[in-house]
Amino acid sequence: MDAAHIRNFSIIAHIDHGKTTLSDRLLHRTGTISTREMEDQLLDSMDLERERGITIKAHPVTMLYRAKNGEDYELNLIDTPGHVDFTYEVSRSLSACEGALLIVDAAQGVEAQTVANVHLAMKQNLTIIPVINKIDLPHADVALAKQQLEDILAIPAETAIPASAKEGIGIEEILEAIVERIPPPKPTGQGSLQALAFDSYFDTYKGVVTHVRVFNGELKPGMNIKLLHSGKNYEVKEVGSFNPKPYTRPRLELGETGFMTANIKSAAEVKMGDTITDARNPAPQLPGFKEIHPMVFSGIYPINTADYEHLKQNMAKLQLNDSAFVYQAETSVALGFGFRCGFLGLLHMEIVQERLRREYGMDIIATYPSVVYRVTMTDQTVKEIDNPAFLPEPNYIEKIEEPMVKAFIICPNEYIGDMMALVSEKRGTLDHTETLDTKRVMLHNLVPLGEILIDFHDRIKSITRGYGSMDYEHAGYQASEMVKLDMLVNGESVDAFSCIVHRSKAEGRGRALALKLKEVIPRQQYQVKIQAAIGGKIIASESVSALRKDVTAKCYGGDITRKRKLLEKQKEGKKRMKSVGSVNIPQEAFIEVLKT
Question: Which of 147, 154, 274, 281 has the most other CB atoms within 10 Å of its CB?
């Protein structure tokens, strides 16, 4: 189709503001999906997305729409996730668009992730069309939502379109606004093909299927193309678009979005953000998107060690579909061979583990999540440590720095005190507060990333009865008094339970772990000591009492010294057993402890 009749746009919003419902309505209204095939959350194809009601992957889809001016337009929509952990998906999707529909829930107003996504869109110079969704709700406040658009995001309120995706109100106006306001794609002025690879997945029969947006020239089967990052040449086998299922097309032209296959066998050959160009007449690189750095690390091990190779292959396939996920091989004394994996956040970690279990049928166990610490040695060399096992001895360390984040928390006014208490409990500091409207404030905080890993988001939701929301961005490193906490079982350190914690929290954490281990370690013939230690200092201790055989049962009557003699003999035997015996911690015990 002629470039003047193509519109590329994305849908951005905070989690649960109705992006997927709106995309369903647009698909239905443009006739891309017939009423018979229509189902809710159509673009959320993963079971996990449907169950949790969240979008995890960005989904491209091509729609044909006849506007009121009587002309036909090709609308390429990319539905994006709203959760803070999947910002990378959003930034990749935006790089393939000229415009974005910004959705604000009329009942909840502008939230933390709305602000973050708008900044992403503005950085890419996209045209933003604000849509105030869910106006049919009884407690919807459209006037307040419009005011927040102006006050918080500096977007003129009169440009906003009131709509209800559920009831189908305002869908026509949105489609017309896309045609009128979003600019058509412009060629880059280069002489040959330039296309951006913004996503990909693995197909058993076709190999790697790459999602592309053509910025210049055309892409068609039989062409020889070059991937600029890897420098490899391929022959294009087929090209096409999604509606939402993939269908083939004779070619993809300037401004069009779709997919291509080219017998690419390995996941490592396609890099997200890479430029695809003509092999005979290569064009320069397109501006891609910034490399993403994982923030949370965790070890993933197969429960059955024979599954190691199988897990390795499945991780490569998953990484292709989720390029923010990184991994490398590692071994653990307790858990055998596995992988050290990096994630963007905790939800991301949970989703990846769940996908490995469901989509690939893997039985896995994950270790306690940790962040990357920067350690300055006494000889001034700097090491980055993401695994407690590699932390050097304290006498060689000059200082340990931990990653910090700027956390923006939006909450109702009455919960400010509770929020400040939560932030200080997590060793954070409040920088300043900003009043958004009569009911809500935004708190700007500086918090260590390691502290917000586990339950911070859940605690915000429970304190504010579900009205609070949070977003964060990285704010460098800060020196802190971090120590390595070791767990000793029968005097031997167990590496799977080691962690790096702040000195002020080490004792509480050590006690909790020791108590949990006491519950899960089976009793032996002798007493088993469980200790939490920092260096050589024991800070918490529990013991599993011994199984006792009644050796005095066959003694009846007679002198007490006979019984004493037998008990002494038993005591000697237990002492000898303790010095040579080792405690085998069962796999279930690891799983139980790591769950806490």
Answer: 274
